[in-house]
Design goal:
Helix content is about 75%, strand content about 0%. It is globular and about 60 Å long. α17 runs antiparallel to α18. With about 400 residues, the chain is mostly helical.
């Protein structure tokens, strides 16, 4: 079990080997079968995992945890709405009003192109209990229905009155590119939350902005300065300023700031990763970029963000096949839309149009948005999504 929950795929493969040895001697208990199947999916063996999960669900139909996991997985990995609906029927009979049942039903309807019906399911769930407001707002946003989610986020902030709910609204508005409205919302909680929370949300809003206005950048920088003064930890907040510079397209300054952040005894692994990313995408210093990403992985493990950055650097460096190998595993282990997009770029670099198209379709299935990639990549993302079917 200890090996099974590790972030390193190599350790998870060791866990798989252990399960195989045990299964060769005796049948696995249902919970062990479930863990075994999840491990298979996490190391890129989804077809094998699907068979095992399907058998497990059919022989343990009363276990809604197995059924729920399998229903979501076949929908996400394969877009199989028919099998997902089979799971949904079981869940709806046992727990018709559970969040898992409502979300799976909405996702199946959305995958079938029945968006209005999907929204009606979520809104009907909310109508039965006002305490479900946050869940409904977040689910509608994840389904790509921001226009329906926004009134719920606003109602949550108004009814709740808590600074956390107001900052959640600000973050949502920022993700939709409504920068001015988002920053105005943040200003409404100054003095009610920590300066660090104000600064963090302000930076997040700018990072997602289609275009950063100078006045908005100055405003957020004053929040960063206030937080640094309060916390007496200037280096920590240099990283936030570096993100502002990235959002502004001032990449040389962002690199300089990140170089300051990564000095010292305990440098931030994310800052090392971001420095590597910028060195590759802005200065084409691929070898040094890879060194920094390697240091980030050594400090915090092979997190998906770090592996994705490594793959992008390899694409830029002309080693696209290595990038394909990394991203093929990564998109099976912890699929996210940006990683499918980068896999498409790797296939494009190799002249593999079939692979490129398949990866773009997966990115679209996972509802990729411009904010899913850093600002320096967003124009290229828009072109690829438009050109590749």
């Amino acid at each position: 079990v200890v090996l099974a929950v590790q972030t390193d795929p190599r350790l998870r493969r060791e866990a798989l080997d252990a399960f195989e040895r045990i299964e060769a001697r005796q049948p696995l208990a249902p919970d062990d079968q479930f863990l075994y199947a999840r491990l298979l999916a996490s190391v890129g063996e989804w077809p094998k995992a699907r068979v095992r999960l399907g058998n497990l669900v059919r022989s343990n139909g009363a276990n809604l945890f197995y059924t729920s996991y399998y229903g979501f997985a076949v929908l996400q990995y394969d877009g199989d709405t028919r099998e997902a609906r089979t799971c949904l029927e079981v869940m709806a009979k046992a727990q018709p009003d559970s969040r898992q049942t409502v979300e799976l039903k909405a996702r199946v309807l959305e995958a079938e192109g029945r968006r209005d019906e999907a929204a009606a399911v979520v809104e009907g769930y909310l109508a039965r209990d006002a305490d479900r407001l946050a869940f409904a707002a977040q689910l509608l946003e994840r389904l790509g229905m921001a226009d329906r989610a926004e009134p719920l986020y606003r109602k949550l902030a108004l009814d709740n009155g808590q600074p956390g709910a107001i900052l959640a609204l600000a973050s949502f508005l920022g993700r939709q590119g409504k920068t001015g409205d988002a920053l105005s919302t943040v200003r409404g909680v100054i003095g009610k939350v920590s300066p660090a929370a104000v600064a963090a949300v302000g930076v997040e809003v700018l990072y997602h902005a289609p275009r950063v206005e100078p006045a908005d950048a100055r405003q957020v920088e004053t929040w960063i300065d206030a937080a640094a003064t309060k916390e007496q930890d200037g280096k920590r907040f240099l990283g936030l300023t570096a993100i502002v510079r990235m959002a502004q397209g001032r990449y040389a300054e962002a690199i300089r700031l990140y170089r300051e952040v990564v000095t010292g005894d305990r440098p931030d692994p994310l800052a090392m990763n971001n420095l590597g990313y910028l060195l590759a995408t802005h200065e084409q210093r691929y070898d040094e970029a890879l060194e920094w990403v390697t240091k980030a992985k050594e400090a915090a493990g092979p997190l998906p963000t770090f592996v994705d950055t490594e793959a992008l650097i390899l694409i830029r460096k002309g080693e696209a096949q290595r990038a394909v190998d990394l991203l093929a595993d990564l998109t099976r282990e912890s699929p996210r839309p940006a990683e499918f997009y980068h896999l498409a770029l790797a296939h494009q670099a190799l002249g593999n149009r079939v692979g490129q198209s398949a990866a773009v379709r997966q990115a679209k299935r996972w509802m990729i948005r411009p904010i899913d990639v850093p600002p320096i990549e967003r124009d290229q993302l828009a072109r690829v999504l438009k050109e590749v079917r």
